Amino acid sequence: MKKLLIAACVAATLAGCGGSGSADQESPRAMARMANLTAARNGASSGVSVDVGSERAAPAGAPASKALANGKMVLAYYSGYSNNYNSLTKFYANVNAVSIDFWNMASDGTVVGNGDPTPTNAITFLKSKGIAIYGCISNVSATAPDGWDPELSHAVTGAKRAASVANLVSFAKANGFAGINIDFEEVDQADRKNMSDFAAALATALHAQGMKLIMTVPAFSFTDENNSHNLAFDLQALGQAADYVQVMTYDETIPSWASGPVAGSDWMENALDYATSKVPASKVLNGIPAYGYDWIAEGDGSQLFWRNVPALLSKYHVTPKYDNNANAISFNYTANGRKHTVWNENAKSVTLKTSLVGAYGLAGTSIYAFGMEDASFWTAVNAGLNQ
């Protein structure tokens, strides 16, 4: 654990509260993750050598942080949230890679859209700025009760592996992408070897075309590595294959549970301790949420974007409390006779959590997601990356 190191690194933290606000729109991927994490809580049980640090900084004057200047990856997700394009065009200089999250796999191994129009405007803009684009591919289907489809990932990583790999490489090449980001969730534990073999085959094929592979994985630690929802992810094998392993160190707590921090620093560090014991730290990305949640009762919450919290605090005349264990903020307010409990991030917490990149020697960080944030969020991210 590196809490003492981080505390020293962030001796001069930023003051104030960044915020989030009610989500105008939730992406299919985000909604599916909520169902997957609920299931995990309810059912808990005890190649080719490539340069992995060569993402280009956005050519908009001086890099926003030392991390960008030094070739660290600062990845942001572009998903189906309101205000996403506006955020992208305002804040693109803070990142050097973007994961476009609009595609799924089909059971025959083809790449299909997720139902939203392909964001050609965002793709064109990113290419004009020289920012690396990764196509984010999920195993979400309309027929799966919880969105994430274990039968789909079983087919893609197993019987349809060769076709899937070929189609993914063709898809990335045709679109001029830097590579592929695989985000398969709720994968059956029996497919652990299939997942690893699929990653190895895909990485080899992408590398042959000068492209890269990001494997997105759940955040878990030594205490829950044998949870049935984590067993499919052999981080050591995935790390050997992929250029980057993006650990989803967000959604520690979700709306269908009791209220709590969305990305507590202790929980995040436990997940990073585990990940970096299996994967070289120089390949690992930690995830930073630009959102929180607002509960009116246990199991009854909704997503809040960072950018709207200041208005919420002002409207209800409340001051958030800073939790020094989780390094997160919380506050209560009453609306329409109902008490709300909010957990979110602020500038201090985001600065600390992004400073983990330096403390662990990580490859970089990932931000979820464009459209949720404002300029103050990026100021905090860069403050952490400059530690």
TrEMBL record:
Gene3D superfamilies: 3.10.50.10, Glycosidases. SUPFAM superfamilies: (Trans)glycosidases (SSF51445). InterPro entries: Chitinase_II/V-like_cat, Chitinase_insertion_sf, GH, Glyco_hydro18_cat. It comes from the Bacteria. The keyword Signal applies. GO terms for molecular function: chitin binding. Keywords: Signal. The keyword Membrane does not apply. GO terms for biological process: carbohydrate metabolic process. Residues 72-387 form the GH18 domain. Residues 1-23 form the signal peptide. PANTHER family: CHITINASE DOMAIN-CONTAINING PROTEIN 1, CHITINASE DOMAIN-CONTAINING PROTEIN 1 FAMILY MEMBER. This is Chitinase.
